[in-house]
Every structure is written in structure tokens, then in C-alpha cells.
Specification:
2 strands, single chain, about 60 residues, mainly alpha, two-stranded antiparallel sheet, about 40% helix, 3 helices
């Protein structure tokens, strides 16, 4: 993806892609973290979704 963005002249995107799959440093506090792991944690549901729905008896 980086090479494609760079070849098309989009250097901002190409530079941004280098951070997508690696570690980044917070500009505010200086801590280092993995951007992909952070993004997954921020965008995953807090609890797993139970695919089993209880049956409801509607015969009455």
C-alpha cells in the first residue's frame, strides 16, 4: 500500500501508512504503543455478542 501511495504522489498517505502496522509515540505523553492494537481495542464491542437467541414460546 505504501508503494502504491508513493507512486501515485500521495506522500501524506504513504507516510501515514508506515504507522498503521507499527508502533507510534503519543505526542502528549511520549508513551509508545501499537496503533493497530489500539484501534482494535477502541472499536471492538465491550462484550462479545452472543449469537444464540433464546427461543420464545408463542403457542399460547
Amino acid at each position: 500500500m505504501h508503494d502504491t501511495a508513493a507512486a501515485s504522489g500521495d506522500t501524506t498517505l504513504a507516510d501515514g501508512l508506515t504507522y498503521l502496522f507499527g508502533d507510534v509515540e503519543c505526542g502528549a505523553c511520549g508513551c509508545t504503543f501499537n496503533l493497530a492494537d489500539w484501534f482494535e481495542a477502541e472499536n471492538s464491542p465491550a462484550q462479545p455478542i452472543d449469537p444464540v437467541v433464546p427461543r420464545t414460546d408463542r403457542s399460547a
